[in-house]
Design goal:
Order of helices and strands: HEEEH
Radius of gyration: 12 Å
Number of helices: 2
Shape: globular
Length: 66
């Protein structure tokens, strides 16, 4: 799935969008996504991938696009 995130991000960039990429770099406890998981967010709020199983994705993209 993470290769799909990179491919989609590249497609968005080629189409003229600004893109932010988030990567899980560390986890502890029962983290929903493993280290290395990716999320790409586009300048209009569209996302692909996951870094948390759904609970922080919108916040990650909002922070990255500000």
């Amino acid at each position: 799935m993470d290769q799909d995130v990179i491919t989609t991000a590249n497609d968005w960039i080629a189409a003229g969008h600004q893109v932010a990429l988030a990567t899980v770099i560390a986890t502890w406890g029962s983290a929903p996504r493993p280290t290395g998981s990716l999320l790409a967010g586009r300048d209009d709020g569209l996302m692909t991938g996951s870094v948390s199983g759904g609970c922080v994705e919108n916040n990650v993209v909002a922070a990255a696009t500000q």
